[in-house]
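input
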Amino acid sequence: MTTERASIAPAPPTDAPLDSAALAAQPVGYWTWAASQALLAHIRGSMAREDVNQPQWWTLNHVDAAENGLTRAEVSARLDAFRNDESAGTMDHAVDSLLHRGWLVADGAGRLTLTDAGREAKARIKALVTRVRAEMHEGVSDEEYAAALTVLQRMIRNVGGDATPRTGPGTGRRQP
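output
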């Protein structure tokens, strides 16, 4: 008995571009999730190798940008939108770890400011963040990046979501 096998074309290599029609049929939910997972893993891995995490970086930026420092409550309020999947206690833990390292100090009123060591650490982490951003954007022009964000923002608004860009220290060019 002979069986006829259907001719199945092999899948293109993962780096082979699909044509516009094939790309347009791809599920945006999957690709935005996959991009988020890959980029966050890269950011977090790079920061972990420097023994720092995103909430600590965000805290250093926001405390340093505040003319008179911030209280714990103000840190949490400002950074709540950046927490993503972290718990509410994440910001308290970031503050505690930065105080323990001597990168932050609290005055008698509980206002947090950066120490000299904190400013030095912030400068080192800024260099890391700049390098990580360059790695993620390699081969992607500013125009392509802006177009991708414009499309994503439009899709978010199309489904009733908030597509307001994040603003504040360290967010001007979407740094991690």
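quick obs: The helical segments are 20-24, 28-49, 54-65, 72-79, 89-101, 116-137, 142-158.
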